[in-house]
Amino acid sequence: MTTTGEELVAARGGPWWWERRRGAVLDVGLAVVSALECGLEGVPFAWATGIPVAVGVVFGLLAGSVLLVRRRWPIVVVLVAIAVTPASMGFLLGIVGLYSLAASDVPRRFIGSLAGMQLVAVLIVMFVRMGQDLAREGVDVEDWIVPFASITTALGVTAPPLLLGLYVGARRRLMESLRERADSLERELQLLAERAEERAEWARGEERTRIAREMHDVVAHRVSLMVVHAAALQAVARKDPEKAVRNAALVGDMGRQALTELREMLGVLRSSGGGGRSREVPLAAVGAAAAAAASRAVGEPAGSGEGPCLSEIEELVGQSAAAGMVVDLSVEGESRVCAPEVESTAYRVVQEALTNVHKHAAGAKTYVRLAYRVSEIAMQVENEPPVGAGSAAGLPSGGNGLVGMKERVSALGGVFVSGPTDAGGFRVSAVIPSS
Questions:
Q1: pLDDT of 108-150, one tens digit each?
Q2: Chain centroid to CA 152: how far?
Q3: Angular region, 308: left φ>0, alpha ψ -120 to 50, beta rest
Q4: Alpha helices, DSSP H only, in 50-144?
Q5: Contacts of 178 (CB under 8 A, 6+ apart)
Q6: HSE on the CB side for 307, CA within 13 Å?
């Protein structure tokens, strides 16, 4: 767990403009030492200028205490140091002030200008004072000694703090840049994690929807046929016992198959680990089980891993015809094998449309048309108006069948249209790209 820049700022509790208490203590200590130094140096300054000693001491104390604001106003500190240089005071003030200026965020041109001014001020003062001292003491030296000593002293007083301040300032800015970059990366990682969670939630929702479609396809059609056969069984039980027996056998077979398929899918959903505790099962596994059950529902071999195909449309229509529906199947174009998802979707559209006819228009004549075109497959299921009051089979409807068909077709880039016809029937049409 890294410490972000915001946490560092929140952890700082220094007074006024100081970020930390230890920084405030350091600056107060430096200001006290500088004030004492300048106060002591104010005594000879007062003697040399003829002003009262107290005034010279107070002036020195005030000038030296300016070091207290070196972090907030480093330019002021350097200007004061330059101003008191002719008075031969402020040695610590000049060094610390120039270091603080170089380490601050002040533009380089100002730093260079003020550093140059301080260098020139120290150079002039040293040159004049050294020449006066040598003349007063009567010491005869070479002409180059005084300029050389003045330049060396001025560079020694200004160059080291300037270079050290520039280094510390560059290092501080680098650390702040790295910290900001770390904060930015941490925020990006959090954002990526949130997006990944959103994508995972979206994927889970999509997988749940797919499982619901598969379970609907597996169960709805078969149970609808069971209800239709049960109604036929009730109608012919006394008139034609043999036909009633056949219908009863069909209902029993369909019921057992539906129960087997439901048991397999629910078994995956409720699978548990040791100790009786439920363990989380990936939705993909449930979807795979649902797809496998859907494949077996249309007679596909177990373990094939593929859904139903268009070659089984005739068998699907035959199941509805066996339940008493009058179905007319017509196929246009040359039959060919398409992508598994295309064939499975086309099959499901026809299956759901026939199921809806069983539910809402039992006994109505139905037309199933399948057309193989150049780059697409078109299918249409249209039923005539139901005949008589008993046209409805009494099957419950959740209203999700048409929605599921449209979602399937749209996912493959196709077009789905459904609605009542002018004659009073209902039509379901879909066109799916075959590649």
A1: 888 999 999 999 999 998 888 888 878 777 777 788 888 899 9
A2: 60
A3: beta
A4: 53-65, 74-84, 91-103, 108-137
A5: none
A6: 24
Output helix, strand, coil percentages for the chain, rounded to the nearest 5. Answer: 70, 10, 25
**Mean of the per-residue pLDDT values of the chain:** 81
Query: What are 422's two structure tokens?
Result: 């002018």
Q: Residue 239 and residue 79: Cα distance in Å, rounded?
A: 119
Residue with tokens 């056998």: 249
Domain 322-435 -> CATH class: alpha beta
Tokens of 201: 């939630």
Query: Distances in Å between the alpha carbon of 59 and those of 66, 118, 167, 289?
Result: 11, 20, 33, 92
SS (H, E, C) 173-229: HHHHHHHHHHHHHHHHHHHHHHHHHHHHHHHHHHHHHHHHHHHHHHHHHHHHHHHHH
Question: In angstroms, rounded to a whole number, what is the distance separating the alpha carbons of residues 45 and 56?
Answer: 6
Q: Report the distance separating Cα 278 and Cα 271, nearest Å.
A: 7
Give 266's pLDDT tier (boundaries 50, 70, 90).
low
* Residue 131 CB neighbours (<10 A): 14
Could you state, in order of their start, the residue ranges of all structural domains in the chain? 5-140, 322-435
Beta strands at 366-372 and 376-383: parallel, antiparallel or unpaired: antiparallel
Tell me the three state secondary structure of residue 47.
helix
